[in-house]
Amino acid sequence: MNKNVKTTTVMLVMTGLFFSACSSNEKKQENTTAILPVEVKMALPNAATQNALSLGGQIEAVQSANISTRVMGYITSMKVKVGDHVTQGQLLATISNQDMLAKRAQADAMIAEAEAALKNAQKDYDRFTALYQQQSASAKELDNVTLQYNAAKSRVDAARQMRNEVNAMLAYTSLIAPFSGVVTQKMADAGSMANPGMPLLTIEKSGSFQVSIAVPESQINNMHMGNVVPLYIQAINKTIKGSITQLSQSAQYTGGQYIVKVAIPENEKTGLYAGMYVTAQLPVKQTTNVLNTSNDAVMVPVSAIFYKDELTGLYTVSANHTALLRWVRLGKQMGNDVEVLSGLSKDEPFILSANGKLADGVPVKEIK
């Protein structure tokens, strides 16, 4: 009995020590909650939107061409692929031309026949002309011979023009580059059937880029040739300055939008490709409320925005020095910054970045 009592006592003591240790660890964890270091920034007024119109656009080549043919036939060879650099006059593709060669042979035979008939008609014309001068042939006979001679000349001209037509069609069986550039699209391969007007290749002139922007009719009068336009290219995270070189005078086929072309300087073309998205800051009059925003709108970095389903928010610092999630309504994005229309006031601090995962209510400490 004494032995069993001692064993029970030891087990109770060990159990008490275990729960005491667990309770101690839990209290220790509660008391040592990590404070998350964060970088805090003040919200700045959106002064830039008062004199700039933020619109999206795309980079495109200054000159581009779709290469097609006017004849129907199988593509016998394709000399280039996407990405190849080509020079002006370089052979790009060939199309079967056996039927064209046969027609040219027929035209050559018709020319030979017409030229032989012309020589015979010319001899008759020369002979009857001499006889008429000697009053040995009548004027009627000379007129008939002259008519036959002129008809023979016309048949020769017709045969030669037929050969020119065949040669012109034959030229469309060998597709050449109209200018030096880069092959950006290939829509067919060797063995495919080429149809008249069907694009087979697209070539863009390399080294020269521009940005195409659709401007609403309410702002087109603020656009002027030569205006400097800051362009933010998101793909390479870079802002460059271009200038307006073209202003469309019609919006008939663009849904009420006027197309504005902004040239990109040659020294800024590194890393650019046609099709890249661009955010342009087009200059407008300061008195124009181009973005329909309030004076309380502020700008914050896009990296500070938190997305959840269809909601957008950012973290601010509460009075208790904890992270506080604030839902906001966003406006236009300009470069790396986005406009906050509501939910955040100017000169109000928000968390720009954190050395860890942010969550609502997490204790934070500003990095100085």
Structural overview:
The chain is α+β, with helices and mostly antiparallel strands and 368 residues long. The protein has three helices and 23 strands. It is elongated. The protein starts with a helix and ends with a strand. Mean pLDDT is 83; it is low at 5-10, 17-21, 23-32 and 287-294.
Beta fraction of the residues?
A: 35-45%
Write out the strand line-up for the largest beta sheet, numbering strands in chain order. 2-17-21-20-19-18
Characterize the main sheet: 6 strands, antiparallel
Write down how many β-strands occur, each being a DSSP E stretch of 2 or more residues: 23
Q: Mean pLDDT, rounded to whole units?
A: 83
SS content category: alpha+beta
Helix content: 25-40%
Shape: elongated
Order of helices and strands: HEEEEEEEHHEEEEEEEEEEEEEEEE
Counting copies of identical and different chains, the oligomeric state is single chain
The radius of gyration computed from the alpha-carbon positions, rounded to a whole number of angstroms, is 41 Å
Short description:
This protein has helices spanning 2-31, 98-133, 139-171; strands spanning 36-42, 44-45, 52-61, 64-67, 73-78, 85-86, 91-95, 174-176, 181-186, 193-194, 201-204, 209-216, 228-233, 238-247, 257-263, 277-283, 298-301, 306-308, 311-317, 323-334, 337-342, 349-354, 364-366.
